[in-house]
Amino acid sequence: MKLIKNILHSVRPLFEEGGKLRAMLPVYQAADNFFFSHVEETTCAPYGRDPIDIKRYMTLVIVALMPAFLASLYFFGPRVLLLMLVSYVAGGLIEVLFAIVRKEEINEGFLVTGFIFPLILPPGIPLWMVALGSIFGVLVGKEIFGGTGRNLFNAALVGRCFLAFAYPARMTATWIAPGPEKWLQLPGSLAASAPDAVTLATPLGLAKSGVMTAPLDLLVGNISGCVGETSALAILIGGVILLLTGVANWRTMAGGMASMTLLAWVLNLIWPAQVAPPGFQLLAGGWMFGIVFMATDPVTGPATLSAKWAYGILIGTLTVLIRSYSGFVEGTMFAILFGNICAPLMDEVVIRLRIRRCAAERACS
Q1: Spatial separation of the C-alpha atoms in residues 27 and 10, rounded to whole Å
Q2: 54-353 has which fold?
């Protein structure tokens, strides 16, 4: 946020009286209000207020997700918009119902959940499954715990996990070959079930049989896979946005990347036929999307800095082990959900160790 504030402050003279962009002053004011102004105003001192509230936090996450979203539109066509619409309508309905029952305001938390959920689904998935998964994720993953800020699990992953176990055949047979020509197939792309969905192996599926996808395709996203998870480059751009604005903590990302790289490298040296090399592990599947956008969720992740390291390391380690030694092709989803369970325990351990250390230091003094 500090970087954005400095940029806006530096260009402000251009929009003021006598500036070259004086006519565009409303645009500048809109940007300033979007990032830094609050609906609530203080009426007495102190007047200082942190510009990061829930609304702007969620807004910045949406901004960071835009590169991956735009890449998904390019590769999979207009059906992505339909998946997004169904996700928002179905999950939003649950949010509204619970807000009415609890007599509370509708929280902005669903803006991110409804946006992320379709991005972690196969592009050819039937629309009724999108609605069912969104409802289940919001209801079971968040609302039964008390709503936004109180949920133990990432709601989008809960919905994805439910669909994976309830409809495994449909979830593994709705892959679509990527390509900008999907925009030329508009009627078919907007069908309830995409007619061009085929049983097409993803890079992780091919890796199980010893076939490695080209690194450039993994980086750009010209591969089959979940809607928003194919382009590692687009996801990395979003990750940079999250880090620069201070929305995500770099320790979780760094711990996850380091543990995955090290473990995959060691195991690949010992069992090269069973464990994919670290470069492939980092770029393939839902790892990059998961570690950037879902593992960094401040609600379901740990709060202490030391625990964030342990949290990322745990997720990276479990992802490699599940991918390599289980019957599941992908392991990121299960690793993050397991990490969600362990996050409170990690915080508890860190806090207890600090209390014990402080007590020991006092005793020595």
Answers
A1: 15
A2: Ammonium transporter fold (1.10.3430)
